[in-house]
Write a structure and sequence with these properties.
The complex is a heterodimer. Chain A is mainly alpha-helical. Chain A is 41% helix and 10% strand. In chain A, strands 3-7-6 form a three-stranded parallel β-sheet, with helices on one face. A two-stranded parallel sheet of chain A has the order 1-2. In chain A, strands 4-5 form a two-stranded antiparallel ribbon. In chain A, helix 5 crosses helix 10. Chain B has two domains: 182 residues, Thiamin diphosphate (ThDP)-binding fold, Pyr/PP domains (Rossmann fold); 127 residues, Rossmann fold (3-Layer(aba) Sandwich). In chain B, the strands form three sheets. Chain B has a seven-stranded mixed β-sheet, with helices on both faces. In chain B, strands 9-11-10-13-14 form a five-stranded mixed β-sheet, sandwiched between helices. A two-stranded antiparallel ribbon of chain B has the order 1-8. In chain B, strand 6, helix 8 and strand 7 form a beta-alpha-beta unit. Classes of the chains: A mainly alpha, B alpha/beta. Chains A and B meet through helix 6 of A and helix 12 of B.
Chain lengths: 290, 328
């Protein structure tokens, strides 16, 4: 995972490195599982919004970017995007633990990961704080996990297809299946190409599904077990894995080894976060204009 | 009398007022099927149906504006903001429409509406979700602003707020929802604009409102062990402000500490400090002390976030300072 990013991005532009992306999705999944565990042990506090189930969206999209020139902005469910941008998971876990070594010095927490160097412009906590639009090379992705906290989006929206919402600004839109990394990768690739070659925006609605509650305090009683199972059967990691097995690009052994590596990395990150020092009291008045 | 939670007190007030007046409706994110993000509206959908308990999309500016329009047309909406942090999205509607409509229309359109939800820091929620916005809302003429901190006050004030013909901003707190207290079985109302002397003492006046009432009460106990007896004045309403009660306690003790979890610059605390220095100057034996949040956005780290807020210790120190007591 910490392999040379430039190489990774160049590869992504030519032929997609699907194995690498599978690894990223696995790392996100294992990171989130570990975070949930740490939350249970009260090592992490506040709101913790997990990305489990949605991995293909961040990974398949960000794979197209050259993070020396391109930027990523996202909302409060930001762990997956941060990992897909190649942020060091030790710093991410330390941030969740509120430590000085965290990516936001322990001041941001789960919803406010940032990395200036990696062009990860952050987790923004306020839903609906939208960016306004000129004709800019921006790919707007509406990552629709189908629930606004506990409310099914169909109950409060007059349309089921959000990709049409850019039409009044002349922005082309498309709906994408976010459980299938190959589809995400293809469609985002075209939108990124349009942005880079023509300098114009796109709006993609990528339909996905979060397996866990909105945050750790949400038991998610508003949906049926059947619905959750239906999506778990289309798990983005399993879909990509099956594809790679079928194409003989991956063996079951390689997959198990990859998963083991990710689990080890996440464990290292948790140990790192645990051992990192608390921020000093004087840091309260640092990074602020007074 | 029954001991109930702050959350239950709010729910009872809503339920009673909705039975009393069919024009009262509740709308906001997750208020109906989910029973409220903090379960304040539990069971109300079953009782009143989806025409009166309305789930909205995540569009604070949109549904707040819809509710203000409904109020202009004669409804009495209660708008639940999942938190006041999200109300920042709706401020244009609140300040430019709700607050000014009566004035701008030459008295034709009053806006009988309540905007309510948790305000101020809870725990571990970082900068964007830990803001105490009382001073911001209290800045605007045309709004009433209340911030009760006990189940008794919450129930009586919410009922008054719903019956009020003007926009009332009603500030709760995540951490207060589970707090318990006595509430009478019979119906009662609490008048908006009246402060409540929660505890009597002759040495120093501690003036506060909202969630910090709890740490002020604890601080007063610590002070009593040191032989210092405090008046605790709970303002309950910030607008209109009970100046009479403020001046009365200060004229009695001659010393004042104001505790406000908002930021110190241009805040309620500094405004009250000005009222005291302007109208009770000759009664003061010491400069007024303020205990506010530190002048920084809220950090996520728990030690830092506690250091950023008023505390029992800070209040005790401030009370001792206005009494010129220096501890070795």
């Amino acid at each position: 995972m910490t392999s040379d990013k430039t190489t990774k991005q160049e590869t992504a532009k030519k032929t997609p490195d699907l194995k690498h992306m599978l690894g990223q999705m696995l790392l996100i999944r294992r990171f989130e599982e570990r975070a949930a565990q740490a939350y249970g042990l009260r090592k992490i506090g506040g709101f913790l919004h997990l990305y489990i189930g949605q991995e293909a969206v961040a990974v398949g999209s960000i794979a197209h970017l050259d993070l020396k020139r391109d930027y990523v902005y996202t909302a409060y469910r930001d762990h997956g995007h941060a990992i897909a941008c190649g942020m060091d998971i030790n710093g991410l876990m330390a941030e969740l633990y509120g430590k000085e070594a965290g990516c936001s010095r322990g001041k941001g927490g789960s919803m406010h990961f940032f990395d200036k160097e990696k062009h990860f412009m952050g987790g923004n906590g306020i839903v609906g704080a939208h960016i306004k639009i000129w004709n800019l090379p921006v790919v707007f992705i509406c990552e629709n996990n189908q629930y606004g906290m506990g409310t099914d989006f169909r109950r409060v929206s007059s349309v089921e297809d959000f990709s049409i919402m850019g039409q009044s600004y002349g922005i082309p839109g498309k709906q994408v299946n976010g459980m299938d990394l190959l589809e995400v990768h293809k469609e985002v690739g075209e939108a990124v190409k349009r942005a880079k070659e023509e300098g114009t925006p796109s709006l993609l609605e990528i339909k996905t599904y979060r397996y866990k509650g909105h945050s750790m305090s949400d038991p998610a009683k508003y949906r049926t077990k059947e619905e959750l199972e239906e999506y778990k059967n289309q798990d983005p990691i399993l879909i990509l894995k099956s594809h790679l097995l079928e194409k003989k690009l991956l063996t079951e052994d390689e997959f198990l080894k990859m998963d083991k590596t990710m689990k080890e990395q996440v464990k290292t990150a948790a140990d790192y976060a645990e051992k990192s020092p608390e921020p000093e009291l004087k840091s309260l008045y640092e990074d602020v204009l007074v | 009398m029954a001991v109930i939670t702050y959350r239950e007190a709010l729910r009872q007030a809503l339920e009673e007022e909705m039975h009393r007046d069919k024009n009262v409706i509740l709308l906001g994110e997750e208020v109906a099927q989910y029973n409220g993000a903090y379960k304040v509206s539990k069971g109300l959908l079953d009782t009143f149906g989806e025409e009166r308990i309305i789930d909205t999309p995540i569009t604070e500016e949109g549904f707040t504006g819809v509710a203000i329009g409904a109020a202009m047309a004669g409804m009495r909406p209660v708008v639940e903001w999942m938190t006041f942090n999200f109300s920042i999205q709706a401020m244009d509607q609140v300040f430019n429409n709700a607050a000014k409509m009566l004035y701008m229309s030459g008295g034709q359109f009053n806006i009988p509406i309540v905007f309510r939800g948790p305000n101020g820091p809870a725990e571990y929620l970082a900068s964007q979700h830990s803001q105490a916005l009382a001073s911001v809302y209290a800045h605007f003429p045309g709004l009433k602003v209340v911030a009760p901190a006990t189940p008794y006050d919450a129930k009586g004030l919410l009922k008054s707020a719903i019956r009020d013909d003007n926009p009332v901003v009603f500030m709760e707190a995540e951490l207060m929802y589970a707090w318990e207290g006595d509430v009478p079985d019979n119906e009662y109302l609490i008048e908006i604009g009246k402060a409540d002397l929660k505890k009597e003492g002759d040495d120093v006046s501690i003036i506060t409102f909202g969630k910090p009432l709890q740490i002020v009460t604890e601080a007063a106990k610590v002070l009593e062990k040191k032989g210092i007896y405090a008046d605790i004045l709970d303002l309950l309403s910030l607008r209109p402000l009970d100046e009479e009660a403020i001046l009365k306690t200060v004229k009695k003790t001659n010393r004042a500490v104001i505790v406000d979890e908002s930021w110190p610059v241009a805040g309620m605390a500094s405004h009250i400090g000005w009222i005291i220095s302007n109208k009770a100057f000759d009664f003061l034996d010491a400069p007024v002390e303020l205990v506010t949040s530190e002048d920084v956005p809220m950090p996520y780290n728990h030690t830092l976030e506690l250091a950023a807020q008023p505390s029992v210790d800070k209040i005790v120190q401030a009370a001792q300072k206005v009494m010129y007591i220096r501890e070795a």
